[in-house]
């Protein structure tokens, strides 16, 4: 479709250095979560994951507070 674009697929399932992590996560993640995280499968089926109302509610018209060079750490 786009001959000037080279598609590269980097999957953790194909990386020997990731084998221990993949094996651990295969045990603790659901099949859906594992396939998305490690199999690079798009599981949306054309439907949005977050409700539009939730996305809209996440935005605000309140201006950002300009507090200078203040940092919070834990």
Any overview of this molecule?
With 74 residues, the chain is mainly alpha-helical. It has helices at residues 19-28, 31-37, 52-57. The longest helix is centred in the N-terminal third of the chain and has 10 residues, at 19-28. The chain is extended, with a radius of gyration of 20 Å. The protein starts with 18 loop residues before the first helix and ends in a 17-residue tail after the last helix. The model has no long low-confidence stretch (mean pLDDT 82).
Quickly list its features.
single chain; 74 residues; 3 helices
Per-chain topology:
Elements: H1 19-28, H2 31-37, H3 52-57
- Please bin the fraction of helical residues: 25-40%
Q: How does the helix and strand content classify structurally?
A: mainly alpha
In DSSP terms, counting alpha (H) and pi (I) runs of 4 or more, how many helices? 3
The overall strand count is 0
| Broad shape | extended
Radius of gyration: 20 Å
Q: How large a portion of the residues is in β-strands, by DSSP E?
A: under 5%
The H/E string reads HHH
Mean pLDDT: 82
Uncertain residue segments:
none
Largest sheet: none
End-to-end distance: 48 Å
